[in-house]
Batch of 4 targets.
Target 1
Amino acid sequence: MPGSFYGLTTILLSSIGKLHLY
């Protein structure tokens, strides 16, 4: 399960990064 949690965290970080870019 840790892998899935890490994946979700990465997606959240990418979304936040995109929001900061725009």
Target 2
Amino acid sequence: MPCFPYGRQVLFPATLSLCASAFLGYAIFDCNFVEIFNENVGGISVGFWQTADELNGNLDNHHKCVAWTDAQASTFDDSWNFGRYGGALAFALSLLANASLLMTLFTRLPPALETMLCFLHFLAGILASLLLLSLKSKMCTEFECWLDVGGVLCITASGLFLFCGCVTMSVGHPLADEGGDDKSVDPTEPDGEDLDNMV
């Protein structure tokens, strides 16, 4: 059973961080980050690493995700490639942040790791938000791009990571320690009733 050295309030950011990682992973590796339109293509979902098979002419496989072909991937510009590799990096950082945060359920971290924990959440959140630069990519110039489910989840994940980063700033100074170690009472000092009697 977890010993909660930081108190049970650490469960809140830990849960949010896990949800944010799940949202970000879905947004990056599925095929519905944006939906593209033009006069020849209407309403096809694409992602950084996969696209709907409908883009390859298989109109009956609208919900099937397939990898980009080499010919298609060769047309990606820097903005879209940043989404591919920056998104993968953000997801890896989020998993590291999750693992570090889950460690706080069982043990107290050194101060340097507490600072790193906060930094990892902020960095993952910033990288996730920068994925929206893909809307300025060459693909979204040739096609009209609208955020799909994955794009919305990416924005949500970014906000959750930034929020978790703010919360974990105080993880080394829990609001309430269940063992009562955060507050000490000097028995030699008079309490409130004794002060009233002295007056």
Target 3
Amino acid sequence: MKNKGAIIYFLFFVIFLHFPAHSQTPCVAGNAAGFPCQNVDLMAHLPLDSLGGASSANDVWGWTDTLTGKEYAIIGLGNGTAFVDISDPVNPVYLGTLPTATSNSSWRDIKVYGDFAFVVSEAGSHGVQSFDLRTLRNVASPPTTFSALDRLTAIGNAHNIVGLEEAGYMVVVGAGTCSGGLTFVNVQDPANMVLDGCFSSDGYTHDAVCFVYQGSDTEHVGKQICIASNTDTQTFVDVTNKSNPVSLARIPYASDYTHQGWITPDHKYLIFGDELDETRKSVPTRTFIMDISDLDNPSDPVYFEATTAAIDHNQYVRGRFAYQANYRAGFRMMDLKNISTITLNEAAYFDIYPDNDNGNFNGAWSVFPYFQSGLVVVSGIEQGLFILKPTVPQIVMDANRLPVLAGCSDQNIVFDINLTSFGGFSESVTLSVTGVPPEASAIFATNPIVPDASTTLTLHNANGFNGVHSLTIQARGPMNDTLQDLSVAFKISDNLYIDDSFLSMYGQSGVYHAANLVEIDAELAVDNHIDLNAGEEIHLHPNFVVPQGSSFHAWIENCGVAAKVPTTFVSEAQRVR
């Protein structure tokens, strides 16, 4: 029986491997080109033999060329990374492959920063590959073989790579270094990647979500946070200082294997999957939910059970929906409207493994839902690349939330808000905001607003309030239907300005200590400034030396009103060579 099963599986694999590419097929009566579906149309399907004939696929990500508006799918393969132009989703073009840096592997992972892709693999000594995606604009005779822009070998092999795009970093996890923990790679110059610290104290990290925090825990607003899926915990880490990351919370997970998770746009919830509970416990597909409103004390996980038996793998959140790749159950689109009551509703699906939804490691590996066109791409281990178009009516709300906006006590704070519609959504949207300081008034320029339009939220600051604040912008449809909640944050504080015009010629640098003993690294430059809360002092590091014959000036500037305050500085400021 065991050998017979292997033969059946081999035949099934061969059928999929040589299955011809599909073009646009709407989902009708629960079917699109032989694939079970609901509210998802098939735009195109590229099987493995249309992607260079690789033996298997794994991760998938995407890139939009801001110059041309074209959209591209990036899919990991056993032998490298393939690039597909999907700007005409019915007629996708396989442009070529970036070969693996060393050997083949079933595990490869990709993320994007700006116009560059970064690739890791569990292939021995693979390291991190960087690739200039602008190369895809001019591929004369596809498919071609691409070359990496740079390769960082110091980490060896790795399981995954996580984007911290707001800071210009990639976070490598599950590597052969740093106990497999969070490893920080500065990718601001993609041609010269730099290893820049790590967090190893909680051991191996399988995957993570990293972001600049904007939620209601104002102690951490503006900080760079990673939530690491560490197999038996969800571990919360402040990674703002890459040389000294700080553990905020470690929530034990007593089940089987925390695999991967993502946060909601209001930074209130983490949802994640367990890759082993379905098989070990014989339970249906579970999505775990944690309230992360307090980053130092997040809630214990609770779970929602779906109707399928498939193993969950990777999931991402956009707007009100979670986009899940659940192996043999394929792509699942879950409505998070009632997440506060631990109730998720399946809004759409496309099953790339029609045979069954059993708990086995076949089918959908990952999903990328962030294209402006509304396309969703799904990678299938044996099936290749699917280009899908969900037809669920929805809106996605975005704002200029990063970096955290800073303001002064006599200035207004303005957020630009954009609403994009998908699936034929056409209703007007009513906006509201919570968390506004009592000293301020909040006004939307246009409200209600129609989809595919923009407005502004202005906080009038005539009464001179300050501090750190988090707001929640709420979008509601007809009958007050929840469409999306989005967190944004701002802070108002004095600034320390350092006039180092006399020092710049010497190329000096120093480390400044606030009164709370938090170190702030800063290379001196004209008009360099450091945020300083009222009443704090800045102390120059004892190793900082003012060159003989030079002078050093500094002052507090509060919203443009400058006053020199030499008493802010301790005696080290008078040091000379």
Target 4
Amino acid sequence: MKLEIDAHLLGLKDPIEFQTTQGNVRAAMVFLRDSAKAAIDVKKSETQSSTTKATDDDLEMMTYLEIQLQTFDKMHDFLVKVLRLNKKQADKLEDVDVDSLQNLAGEVAAKLLLMDKKAPTEADRKSNTD
């Protein structure tokens, strides 16, 4: 099944089409699983920080940053793979704010897993020219 995503965040006027292939659906599941795991790990880290010694602060910070970096990398790789972004489009991901990028990745994953069947509206397409 062909799906579309409004990709104005990447500087594109037209929506990007992508398929519900096994590879893309698997990538969506892996991305969502890893995102959920990262959220759990962050909560565990926050819970542990209140009961551990101050000397563990550096280790906790490193663990937190490692989780976040892995999440960013997986989100980037997921979008590049599924949307088949070229180098210029992939580089544009670096310029998108974190919340918008997470929303885009979540929307792509939701569409792939048939959790969101909403196609980009005409208003979405017109917003691309702004």
